[in-house]
Amino acid sequence: MGEKFTHLRNGEYVLNITVDSKLDPISLMVNRVKSDQRRHVLDLSIGFYQSEDQRHTGFSVLDDSKVDSACNGVTFSILGIEKYRDAVKKLITPKETISHNVSTVQTIGASGGLWLAFLILKREAGAKRVWFSDPTWGNHLEIAKSTGLGIERYNYDINKDGTLNFNAIKESLICLKPNDILVLQGCCHNPCGVDLTLEQWSEIAILAKSRSVYIVIDFAYFGLSRSFDEDKAILTPLLDILDNLFVVNSFSKSLGLYGERLGSLTFFSRSELEVNSFENFAKNIVRSTYSMPPQQLATQVADVITNPDAFRKWVGEISVVRDTLNSRKEALISALVSRGIDGLITNTKSNGMFLNLALSAEEVEALAVKFGVYILGNGRLSLAGLQKRDINKLANAICEIKL
Ligand code: LMR
């Protein structure tokens, strides 16, 4: 709060919303879009998927299950109801992971999972610093700061041919220290859309182990790069090498539940004792903050994961979302190329919800002011909100500010 409490007077609360708010860049942009009164605003700032035409989340499998999965009564479950925890554990765990003990706890979205992992590692494992890619999701740094951890960054550069500059990552990780936390995005890197290969995951695991570093995988886009099985294959090389691993996921993107904050933190460890301690630490933190997570929707999502018909329907729906994102990307790239603009999109081989446009801050601003087209200040464009019918309008606007 920029103004502290200087506006709080005798029984009269005057809350000033100041422009120097400490909100993350995505929240600030969302507020700005909301205040634009023009009729034809194109909001490409945030990763909320909208299907073509109906502007639907793309997922209706949950509607079918609502009647059957009413949550019968309340149970006292600080770490989330068993049914949900077991279902998510099954969804996330690679089949061949037999040497690790596994525990999944329900969290308030993936953000809440990161927050919980950071607090546990800070309080119980001596962690002082957390490493994020540069660039990364706009709110990562704020979540880590709120736990009192120091922030470090590693390079995450995309080569001209659209691949990841893995050497740059390794070079910047030379400064890892024991007990540091290394956050890596499991798939559909936000904002780059370019991920590590299985060999690179092994190299990272070897590096982390040699430095006694904790790895936390942010799997917010699990299932949106390829199938669930293919996406979770990255955990196998990690678990082959590491003694323990934290994995965070949510159903915001993979099931269109952004507003419901349903997520989880899964902990893998070779030591059963360590898993028991993890659960106890998690219980203490959850009980002393928000007491316990909500149960109704967790029951429904557990049913979608465990009921074969519902699961099949979900797999079908998520593959439509993936294909739609991909075809929006291809259509935008060819619209730009046909207008004589190429080289503007650096991550042509990306997957997931975002494309990066090599635009200056002034050009991004011109898109907003002249055309009501909103992307993030760093050039990140969300394909999630881009309808095919708006692609020509977008390409024309980019053309005008570029040529
Ligand atoms: C995004 O990056 O747009 C999404 O993760 C939504 C959010 O909460 O920022």
The portion of residues forming beta strands comes to 5-15%
Can you tell me the CATH architecture of the domain at 66-307? Answer: 3-Layer(aba) Sandwich
Strand segment tally: 13
Tell me, rounded to a whole number, the average pLDDT. 92
Distance between the termini: 41 Å
What's the name of the CATH homologous superfamily of the domain at 66-307? Type I PLP-dependent aspartate aminotransferase-like (Major domain)
Structural class per helix/strand content?
alpha/beta
CATH class of the domain at 66-307: Alpha Beta
SSE layout and pairings?
Blueprint: E1 8-9, E2 12-13, H1 25-34, E3 42-43, H2 61-65, H3 82-92, E4 101-108, H4 109-125, E5 129-134, H5 140-146, E6 150-155, H6 166-172, E7 181-185, H7 198-210, E8 214-219, H8 228-232, H9 235-241, E9 244-250, E10 262-269, H10 272-289, H11 296-306, H12 308-338, E11 354-356, H13 361-371, E12 373-374, E13 380-382, H14 391-402
Parallel strand pairs: 3-12, 5-6, 5-7, 7-8, 8-9
Antiparallel strand pairs: 1-2, 4-10, 9-10, 11-13
Helix pairs in contact: 3-11, 4-5, 4-10, 7-9, 11-12, 12-14, 13-14
The structure holds (2S)-2-hydroxybutanedioic acid.
(2S)-2-hydroxybutanedioic acid binds next to loops.
